[in-house]
Each structure stands twice: as C-alpha cells, then as structure tokens.
Amino acid sequence: MPTVWIPPLLRELTGGQERVTVPGRTVGEVIQALEERFPGIQERLCQGNRLRPGITVTVDGVLGAKGLREAVSPESEVHFVPAIGGG
Amino acid sequence: MPSKVMVSTHLNGQEVTFLCEPRQTLLEVLREELGLTGSKEGCGNGNCGACNVLLDGVLVNSCLVLAVETEGRTVTTIEGLTPPDQLLPIQQKFLEHAALQCGVCTPGFIVSAQALLEQNPQPTEGEVRRWLAGNLCRCTGYDKIVRAVLDTAQTLAGNSAQDSDQEVGG
Amino acid sequence: MHAFEYVAPLSVDDAVTLLQESGGAAQVLSGGTDLIPQMKEGRRRPPLVVDVKHIPELNELVYDPVEGLWLGAAVPCHRIVGNGAIARAYPGLVEAISIIGGIQIQGRATVGGNLCNASPAADSIPALIVHRAVCHITGPDGARTVPVEDFCTGPGQTVLAPGELLVRIHVPAPSPNQGGAYQRFIPRNEMDIAVVGAGAALVLDEGGQVIQSARIALGAVAPRPLFVEEAGAFLAGKPVSEEVLEEAARLAREAARPITDMRGTAAQRKHLSQVLTRRVLLQAVQRARGEEAGRRNGHA
Amino acid sequence: MSVDPQRDPVKGQNGQNVGQGGGKNGYRVIGSRPLRPDGTDKVTGRARFGADIRLPDTLYGKILRSPHAHARIRAIDTSRAQALPGVKAVVTAADLPSVESKIQDLGEGAINLRYLSDNLLAHSKVLYHGHPIAAVAATSPHIAEEALALIQVEYELLPPVLDARSAMAEDAPILHEDLRTDEMGVRGDRPTNVASHLRHQRGDLEAGFAAADVIVEREFFTSPVHQGYIEPQAATALYNADGQITIWTTTQGPFSVREQVAQVLQIPIGRIRVIPTEIGGGFGGKINVYLEPVAVLLSRKAGHHPVKMVMNRDEVLKATGPTSGSYIRVKMGANKEGKITAAQVFMAYEAGAYPGSPVGAGAGVILAPYRLENLQIDGYDVVVNKPRAAAYRAPGGTNAAFASETVIDELCEKLGMDPLEFRLINGAKEGDRRADGPVYARIGYLETVKAIQAHPHYTAPLEGKHRGRGVASGFWFNWGGRSSATASLNADGSVSLVEGSPDIGGTRASIAMQLAESLGIPYEQVKPQVTDTDSVAYNDVTGGSRTTFATGLAAYELGQKLKAEMLRRLADLWETEPEAIHYEDGVFSHGEERLGFQEAAAKIHETGEPVMVSTTVYPKGVGPGFATHVVDVEVDPETGKVTILRYTAAQDVGKAIHPSYVEGQIHGGVAQGIGWGLNEEYVYDQEGHLLNASFLDYRIPTALDLPMIDTVLVEAPNPGHPYGVRGVGEVPIVPPAAALANAIYRAVGVRMNVLPMSPARILEAIWAKEAQAKEPV
Asked: What angle do the packed helices D507-519 and D552-573 form, to 10 degrees?
C-alpha cells in the first residue's frame, strides 16, 4: 500500500503519526482512504474535488500535474507540500 | 495646449526638423515623435544609461537633454551608429560573447562602448568597467559585456596592426 | 514635467535681464543633470528655463600657470577632465570633478551647475573651497565675487540674488609644493551621492617637511559644504607627521554636524569625516612632495 | 599578477565544464555556442520592447498613486481631471467589476482575485506608498500627468505596519479585517496580519540537539529587494468596438496575462489576445499584471482608442513586486564528527499588502542541501504596508540561505572544520530525503562542492590584510509547467518553430538548438519565433527555470515528430516502410535512394500536403538545481566597504544546451545576489514612505562593483529530460549573500545577520565588536 507522509499541521488528526499506509491507486483514492481512518483530513487537503490552493502533491518525489487523479503505486510515497512559484 | 517650438538638428546624418514642447526630453522626442525607439528609458533620471546617445560626439543620457537644446547640434543614436550594410565590430562581439540576455540595455551599452573605443582604443579592464559604470545591466553581471568590449579592442588593434604591417611591407 | 518656456540667450546681459524679469522664478539650465530630474519629479516648477550654454563667457576654460584657472560656469566636466594641463595643476580638484556622475553625466554636468544646485553632498564644492576658488557673479547691479565657501547657504540655496548669474569660477594658480586631494565615500564604486566627501589642499616648505598652509573642507556633513578652517589653521607651521594629520582629521570630525538619512547615519558620517580627511591629507602631502601614490582601484 | 588563462578577460569563456558534458558529448548542436536569432535586432536597437509599441491614435495612460502607506479612502473626486482638455478617460476602482473572494491559479501561484483587483486600483483602503488609486488616459503623457494632479482624494490616515514581526504582534494595526490565519485548511478565529502558517517537521528535535556537541542559534533580518529589470512595465491595450481586446505587453507570461485580465475584468479569455513584446528583464517581476487591466478599462472608456501605459522607475520600485523582507531564526546543532544532529527554523516573510510571500519556497530551500533526521521549520506569511511581493529569482531563497549557510559556517568554525568538508559530510545526494519530505532523485550537489574544493580559486592561498574567503551552497526546486509549440517544414529545408515562451535571455536559441539536435539539422536551419496567445496553445510563464527544460522538451518532441512525418512521406514516395529508411547526418537513404534533408524537404513540398507538427507537454521530470559558491573579499575596516576580489560559482546544470547562456544565467544570478548581499534594500521612513525609489539610491551593482565571475558547469544530467536539462536560472542567486557574509567574517571578524551588509552596517558591527573587546572580562 502507498505510504502517505502526513503534513505536520495535520498530525493532530492522525494522533501524531508521521506516515501511514492506506490503499489507493490515485491520490484522490488515497485521500478518501485517509478520510475514512482520520475523519476531517480530506477537508484540510481538498477544496471540493481538487487540492486546496497552495498545496501540491508529490508522488515518489515527482510533482504531479494531475492533482487528485495522479496515479499512485503500492510502493509509492506521497507528500503534500506547499506549491512553489519560481521567478 | 502649451506652445511648441521648431527645432532643426543633424540627426543620424540627416537634417531633421521637428516640433516639440520645451518640456519634452530628447529621449521622448526620439522615441515618441521620430520613431527612433532604439534608445530606451530605464530610469528617466540619468542613472542607467539605456538612453545613451552622442550629442556633438559626446556621450550623454538623452533623458537628461531637452529636445529644444539640440537646435543646430548633432545627435547620433544607436540607429545612426549602426552602419547600413553590416554590424559594427562591437555589435558583432556582443553577439559572439553572448553579452546580452534581455537586450534592453544593449543599445545604450553599444553607444557607450563605441564612444569609449573611439576615445581609448586599448582600454584596460578597469577602464572599461569605469566607463561602463553609468550603464546598468541587470542580466549579465557585466562579465561577458566587459569581455566583448576588450575583445573588440584587441581585434581592432590586431587589424590595424596588420594594416600597418602591410603598409610597411608594401 | 510641467510646461515651461525655454530661452537660450547669447550674452550675459541678456541672461541677466531674463532672470531679473522673471523675478527669480526662472531657472538657469546648464548641464541639466540636476535641473531636469528635479523638474520631472516636480521639485522645481520654473515657468522659464534659461539655457546659458550659448553664452561665450560661460564656456570659457583657460588655464595659465600664473593667472590660474578660469572656469566658465557652463563648461561640462568632460572638458575639464580631458585637459591634461589642468589635471596636472589641480589633481585634487579634477578628481572631484571627474566623479560627478558616470561618463554620460560628465558629458553634460557642469561645475557651475554643481555649485548652483548647492547640494550639501556636491563633490566639486569641497575641492573648490580648498583650492581657494572664487565665484564671479554678474547681476542687474553689476559684477561681484564670492569665495566658494560662502556661495552655498543651505541645501539648494545660494547667495545668488534674483537676476544674478554665476558666470565663472576662478581658481588661483597652484603654489610650488602644493598638493590637493579629494575623496568621497559611497557604497558602490560609482553612481552614488557622497555619504561624506573630503577635500584637502596644502603647501609644504621647500624641503617638503613643514606645512606652510592648509585648507580642509567636507561634503555631506552639514546643510552646506563645510569649510573646516580651524583644521587647516591647526596644520599651518607644523611639520608633517602622522599625529599632526590625525589631529587635523579629528578637528574635521569635530566640525562635522551630520544628520542621519537614507544615505548614511550621523555616526557613520562623523567617523568617515575623520577617516577621509586623514586619507586626503596624506595624499595631498604625497602630491606636494611629488610622490603620487597609485589610486586604489579594485579593477586596476 | 600571474596570468591564469582561465581568467584572461578577453578569451571568450571564463568557466569550465565538468562531469559528463565536458564538450559536445556526442551531440552536434547541444553544447555549442551559436549566435542568437534575435541578437542583431537587439544590438541595433531594432527589437521592439514594451514601450516601443506605437499604434495610430494612441492615448497615454498614467496612474495616480497613494502618498500614504496605510489609509482609508474617504472620497475620490475626478471631475477636475476629467474636465482637463486632452483627457479622454479617468477610471477608479469603481470601474472594476466586483469579483468574489476566490483563490485562482493564474499561471503561477494562486492568488485571491479580490486582492489582485484591489492591487490594480485600491477600493476602500490604500495599503502601501504607491498603491494605485485612479488612472487617466489623455492625448499626451504630460497632459495625463497634469490630470493626475487634479484628482482629489480624501484620506483617513491609519498607522502603518512595516515589518513582519511587528505585524505579528497582538496589537498590530490590521490591514485586512477579514484575513484569518490559514493552517492547512483551518482558519484562525480573529483578525490578523498572518495569512498562513506552514510547518515541516521530522524526527526528534530534542534528542537531536541533545546529541549535538555544538549548537548555534542566530536571528536574521532582511529588507525587501527588487528584481531591478531595466525595462519598466509597459502595456498598450485596445478594447475594440466589437468587444475584442488586444494587449501588447512586456511579460514573462502572455497566457497568464490573458488569464489575469479575464478574471479581474470578468471577460472570457476568448475575447482577449495578448501579444508579448520583447521583454527587458523580469526575474519573476513580470508575471503579475499591474497595467494591463487598467489600460483595457481606459481604452473602453476612452472610446476604443489604444491606451499605452509605461511606468517610470519610481513607480516600478514603489508599486511592482519586490521580494519579501524577512525575519528568520535558525538553530542548528552538530556533533564532533561534523554531522548535523538537528535544525530548527522560524521564518516570517513579509508578503506586502496582500498574502502570498514566498515563505513556502524559503522553507523548502533553507535546509535543502543537507541530509537531516531531526528538523522543524515553521513559516509565516505576513501582510505589511509595502507593495505586494512578487516572485524574484528563486523566490525566498537568498534570504533563507543567508541564514542557514552562515549558521553552518559558524558551526564549522566552532568544530574547526573546513566548510566544504562539512558539506561533503552532510550534503544530500540521490535517495536522501529533503527537509520538506520527498526523496531526491539524481542530483549533483556534492559534485558542486567537490568542484569548488578542486578549483584553483579555492586551492590558491588568500593573502593580505582584511581579506577573507567564504563559501555557501544553495538549492532551487525548478519547475516544469505546460508548454506548446509548432514546427513547419519549409521547402528549402528550414524549419519554422513557433513557441509561446517569451525569450528573456536567449531561449529562442536554446530551444531551437534542441529542435535542431532532435531533427539532426544545423541550428541555423531552425527559425524560432515567440508568438501571441491566439497562435499557439497554452504556455506557462517563462519563469521557475522551466523554459529551456519544458519548452525545450517540446522542441525535442517536435523534432521527433517532424522526422517521423518526413520518413512517412519518403516511405510513400519510395514505396517502402518508414522503418526501412535510414536517417543519419541529415541524409535519408533507402537502398539506392539518398536525399539530403534539404532535398527531402523540397521533394516533400512538391509531392503532397505541407508538413507541420505540433506538440504540447507538461513534463514531470523536473530536476532540482544545486550550487556552491566561493568568494574572496577585502573589507576596509575604516569604512566597512567590501571589495569583491574573486568569485567562482559551481552549479549542477544538468546539461548545458548553450553554455554561454548558462554561464550568463549564473553571472546574472550571482550579480543580483551580490547586490542583495551588499547594497540593495527598500528604505522606508517611519510613516512607510519608500525613500529610495530610484536607481540612484536603490543600488544595483554597476560594472565597477563586480569582478569577472568564474563558473564551473557541473553536468549531472537530469533523467527527466532527453538531453538531461535542468533549470539553471534561479539557483545562482541563492548562495551569494551567505558566501559574502562568511567571507566578511573571515576578513574582519564580524558575523553579519542583516541584509544588505552595507558599509554602514559592517562599520557598526566592527564598532560593536571593538566595544565588546574593550569591556573588562
């Protein structure tokens, strides 16, 4: 199952857990699964059916372009990080 | 409407007559009235050199010259400096050295560097930097610009040395 | 820029008449490197601009080893700096003039304009003061002379009465064994206004050991360029030594009454007054002795 | 002085390439240094920049700006301005459609539309000195200016908030009554100036610090600095009688301009065409719109005349984006072996008048070069009464690295370790975890450290009084983003390349080179041009160091597609399969048949439909960039002035497509970093007036302030790009301020914790040190 790193500000919802493994083939499914275990977390990550503005997701270190539809493999590592703009 | 003044000037090798208000700078008239937009306005108060032109052969900031002051005088802009059939050696060297990135300061640098080389054909690196200190560039860190100027000087010296060799030999 | 009339008179008399008729509202345009930005920013809004560059007397640049230097008020810096005889006679003055702006500014800016703009930080003024320069002024009531140290009365203010025109500046011929120097401190190496400027000129005895007379002036440490007469007087008659020069520099520091502004702090300016005065005195001594040291330049 | 051939100022290149590149590496075009296609126009003054656009019947627009940093607008009376002969239109915020408070991703970074609109023309409050209030279009710029003076605004002055820490105070005046702190989706319950709080945390800080043999904790203060592009913002807009809008503007992102104008004016993008002019520098500062929507409003109100608006330098500095001033605290511990055991960071970035500082980026940069197990980073985005912060080259990176890299230098000093050795012990490599979580793929950080270690600059002794040598490293994420382009085959074998990425520093060349390489033809045969928003599909901005990477990838794909199409056509002609045709060195062959590229193009032209291919990309394989710099300085202890004696920058550039422009990016970034480090800053008075809004007193480096800048191009190819390209433009601005601080310390023994390290500040630090030394122990 993919490993999700819980952003520090959301660890209050995971009982302090830094990372958890949940099932899912896409980022959206992973968040669904998280929500089932840690109610309220989805709202912190998403606005409607997309990630909150200012949050991006990396899967295995790669910044995804597809947001919630980004594919996730069983060995994947998922991070939610601040969106960065360059100059 | 404020009254306008008629001004005749030798501009880039031609007699040009234009109407302007006394409050219009030479830069404004060149750009907005005469369509010569090669001189750029980067600061408007003489601190960046992007508007450099030659006034009676002397390097000046055209943003700090009133257009009315040019009555009867000679003005050379980047457009007039460039020969009709080919680039100046300094222009060619700027290209070869990649001495420009965005290119907006480049016309000012070309006018300024050309004035330097005419006055001091073999400048040191320090002299080049001192001369160009009134021309701001934000992209290049000046490294390649200074090299391009020094290389132009060296190339021109090589050419003139060859010329004089030939004269001696011939 | 506001709308204004422009006139370029051909004689001093015509210029004086124009200035007088405007009742002091007209502005003289020389190199324009201060006036034009000030008009763009709306800091000056003269109804009439009098361009004095076509008046022959104001374009005069004559140096004579006996008579000294006659410097027309509208002579651009590049003409002075490019004159080898003047640079050799007054290195301390010419180096001050040579750093009024970059090359493009040098092509237009004038010493007369630098004086009349009366910035406390003007580079040429301390150097003119220490070289005993005198302003020659013509006005509706005739001509008069004013020593440069008395010319500026405050930021942007001078002794010029309405209708008066600065025509030329006279700098006496250098004495034998005279040396002068000017240095300013700026954060960059070019394109800045002096945080502090210091000028010194002194005359040594024939042996080059005793200071016969000295003058010291500072820029940017008071509402007007500051002639530190007491520091020069202190040096007169004393043998050259590090201690003596340092004491004169300390007196300069004492005299400085700077403010804190965006270009520097009062404490920094006090401190630099002493540092720069010491440095220009040392340089002036070396020049008086004919042992000019190379100028410090990061890119030489 | 001995002559070092690498430092001969006349010989073209001063740098070196190390790593896998080291030359052309089997490439024909990549790695060479051809002339740029737009070069001649730029050295002759013919190139058309933003202010060079002249249309018939053009009116000139000017903006009235707030003289106050913080005030409520009680009333605006524009009647006298409107009555001035020559004035054709006056607009205020009342002319802007009301937009809802909605956060929108507009090309790069998300912004609340209401803030965007309010920054164009203030609605009810002015939030910084220079905030636009009204705009006028008139028949001449002078008349427009005179009209501004006739507009009467009644203000109710409010106390300004001028730095992040005072803005965070309990009793601070509030800029936006409705602003609440966002902590990843949770909104605070009271008015505040803190727009958001972010955190990265891993491991056990307490244990980490307990395991340290030395701990250094310092705080740092930096002022806002400006991108300082030489070309001021300039835009011309025509709102035509049929409702179609055309905008000519100098921008890093014409598509982003289209999007922003559409959103803020509530106009469909289909009615807006944005034509990018040549752009005279941007560095992140020409992404946000300032003039374009206002020019559109004026054009409509003035009866469909084109309206041209050009900022002056004063306006550029007062009202276009500086990057954030900041307050940063860093605590780091290391053990005797030189391993970092823990790091804790607090950073508060000034967003300016509206939320959106680069604190997130700063938090990602600040510890990025190091392998850490115990860390915590807290970042705060704080609004203050200064212009809205905009992106500036590696946004948030320079001030962050200034803090962390000087603390590391102090750790090294306390441990008695060489700072490069320390970095080799702690430096991140492939497989290590970044501070913000994800794991690095192939990166070349350690190679940059080794490159400096081996460089003659670092190995040469530095002699002389008051001289010091400093090193520092830096990181930048880089970016991919969306790009599209088309290529058409011409009958003479030339290829027209149409792209949508404004060329800000030679990317026409670097992109054309990738097409040429991909297609196997000489660079000179590719004719690139940058086009408008109606002529190519969407492109993200030229920014984030993405253009040579992503638009270059598009060009690579175009080459592959064009080749495939040519093979298909020749196969048809030669009655065979495309796979059976051999293509090498620009020659197609099959059995007896042989056609050079040019002949093939002519043949294809004669025998059927024209050949054009297009591609769109959104690459994921972004490779981050690392750099390590070394600088030698001399400090005049009596004046505090720093002279830079020598500078060398080593950077992992992935693959240098056009090495001259890669060097140029490094030179430019270093120069800006040096300016930031030594002299650049926004100076405000207590009322929040910006005092130094000119190039006279906002001191960017001149030619006399910089030495030649040596470069070492380390080439650790990015696996995410067919040629190994990484972004190169941003990371070089990250290390310089820290490297200078470390060098200054070694020269005169003072640890600087304020940017810029101006002469006055260095002098004060020296005095403080002397005073301390005099105190009885």
From this structure: 30
